[in-house]
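Example record

The entry below shows one chain as it appears in the dataset: sequence first, then structure tokens.
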Amino acid sequence: MAKKKSNKKKRILRKIILTLAVIFILFIAMSFFTEKAESNSISVDGSITDLELPEPRQGEQIISHTGYTLSYNEEAEQPSYVAYELTRAEVLTQNVERDDDFRKDPLVMTGSAELSDYRGSGYDRGHMAPAADFRWSKEAMSDTFYLSNMSPQDPSFNRGIWADLEAAVRVMAYENGCIYVVTGPVLTDGPYETIGENEVAVPKNYYKVILDYTEPDVKAIGFLLPNEGSSKSLESFAVTVDEVEDATGIDFYPALPDDQEEAIESEIDLSKWSFRTSLPENAYDEDVEEISYVSNERNKMLDTVISLFNNLKELVFEYTGTEAIARRFGLL
């Protein structure tokens, strides 16, 4: 009997050692791979690259999908922000119909939320990067259905005022030619209700910030909305970008020159923005330039490696029988 107990202890010890070894390797790998989030920079022609990207969030993984970038908050199991450029041509290019291909994101190293988390919760899987903004590409549209791009939203909010704001943003892109959008949940005013085994946080508020960086009328606007249905006008939720920064703790548009960033983010002029939720009737009759999306090959290669690494990680935990310990450490 004593020998059996000793063998059992040895097996448990081996599992703990294996788990700790995997955790160490994952920690090193995560430190390496998350370095792929590069700083904003000035291109050769003087234009600002990656203008839509906020300041990186400490401890969060930056993930690039087709047409948008997100920062994944593991504790809340959703993005702190999703950022993308939206152009007039993209709004008018309607090549793809919506296909509700909701699925786990294989690139989230700690494991993203899952379909089971939302099932029966009473909350919608609310897009942060809206599917309708990415109808210009089948791959881009499909990528918006990763659960890393979702947040639990009250149905009356998701299908009401939030949908109206998403539609208004497309009109803004149409009228201004090109805008830079950052959107996400406010994750600074917890504690939160959670849903599912992965304890996905249910935010109380959401935000959007929008920058029009086209001369001569450079401008920005922000929105803060509670996660509930509303009959109020979109204008009533409009705020300065500075106010959204105060609410979220996120530094938006850090690539802008400091003096310009300060001026743009501290002011708001509602008269310069349209809050219409539909395009002009003849909008789709316009000739639209063909969209040529150039992916970042370095990021694409690293994303592939991360996906393979995550699959290997799950196999290792399954083979060693250490899934329970791994979940306790937030690795699955």
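Notes for this example: The CA atoms of residues 124 and 237 lie 21 Å apart. Confidence is low (pLDDT under 50) at residues 34-40.
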